[in-house]
Design a protein that fits this description.
2 domains, mainly alpha, Methane Monooxygenase Hydroxylase, Chain G, domain 1
Length: about 550
Amino acid sequence: MDILITLLAGLGFIFIGTHYLTVNMKQAAGPRFRRVVRQATVSPWRAAAVGIGSGAMIQSTNAVTFIVVGLVSAGAVTVQAGMPIVTWCYAGTTLRLLLVSIDVALLTYALVAAVGIAYFLEYHKSASYGYLINAIMGLALLMVGVDLTAHAATPIGQSQTMRDVLAVADQFYYWGFIAGTLFATFMQGMTVSIIAVALSQAGVLGVDQTMLIVVGANVGSGIMSWMQGSALKGTERQLSVYQVLLKALGALILLPLLSLEHFAGVPTVAALVGAVTADAAFQVTLVHWLYQIVAALAASLLNGPMYAIVHRLSPPSVEEELSRPEHLYAPPVEDPVAVAGQADREQRRLLRRLPDFLGELRPEEHDGKPTAMAVLQRSGKALAGEIRGFLTEAMACTPHGRATDRLYQLWNANEVLVTLHDELAAFVKAMPKRGKDPAADRLIVNLTEGLHALLDVVALELDGDEPFDPEMLARLTADRSSMMLRVRDGIANQDPPLPTDIRLALWKATDLFERINWLLRRYAWSLGSIAPAAEETTPAAQPVPA
């Protein structure tokens, strides 16, 4: 019983220490680390160096991966540029395994003493040093846990029962690889490797099987990362898929070499690490390090093909494609006319999409499934945000003049487009479903088709290369309050009366129709396409009939 409790305590220290170390090192890295990662993607070699450094510093490959995923989501780096960071961060995490594989009991006690003094002086509450002190405490607890586990497992390894079990297990060479993969799928792969090293030091596991466990733990860590990123979609998920491919690549190289050495006696991996050191635990650490280096080198050589596979397995989503600018480049400060032209073309893309918002209300007009309204709204506002930032940067660098006036016009028009996205989404949500009342269905169709025709014609008029007719555009977007008043009277006085919920929904839809018409006119005003009318106030919401 004493041995079992000591063994469980050692494992508990390993788990607690791993948690403290990774969580606090991730917090200690902070925003500055994100800036370093973003700047590192300029060069593959610099990215590789930052990957090794980030793995050694944060001691969590998943944390590094999700930091890069966050930068990819923000558009700060591309997936292909971030791949070397993920590739090489695994090599950096080997530092933790190296520390626990050598006998550093005195260093462990020194770390505990230093952390205790820091806690006594309350440095752990400091904003500057708190996370670092807690991370060091996590490392110390981890090393204490390895020492306890090794001592507790020594009598187990020497027992006849364990020797009989291991003798049966040795008849199937790959059991260590399978066990390492399964365990690392549900707990951190490095933690599995550390426990394997501790059991190897205690004589419970042979060096061969410990090496296989380490190889399997690496594969399992890739699967775990893929599972953790299962909620991600499109481009954001590509790095999780890449980790699985990276780990599979390392296993495809090392596992045949280990098998060749075991079954044919050809000196390969074990012979290489045995020539470096006779210490079994250190040999296992070298195998882990060799796995990372071999996988990273192979992935670096196959960067292009691997990215193509990743892109095929997790292609960008429709929303990502719609959110990505097609015409915006680094603003040429010397040529504000070119800047205005780029922004204008990008805004036309948004304008052409506005009729698609009504796709869900007009399913019979689509051969396939229309793009969801929520996707159009989010992607449109994201693209409008890109245009806003582009124009803001250009205006800050352009001397005042006629060119600047054009940029301000486009900026104002862009804000109107954002509001149009919200109002169209509200119109689609407000419109009741068909099939509840024949009279209501006729009104729903008339409102939907009328708004679609308005959006379509205005988009065509403003998007064409040919000069548009300002008078026609002014007539298209003219005030429709009288017409909407007649529609509302028809809704209120329908005989037989419409159901209350449908009547209120249609009333709200007419309000939104009027606002959308006004915003289209406002958009044309902002671009200088038509002259401003006398009434420039937003249409007020109409009172709901009793």
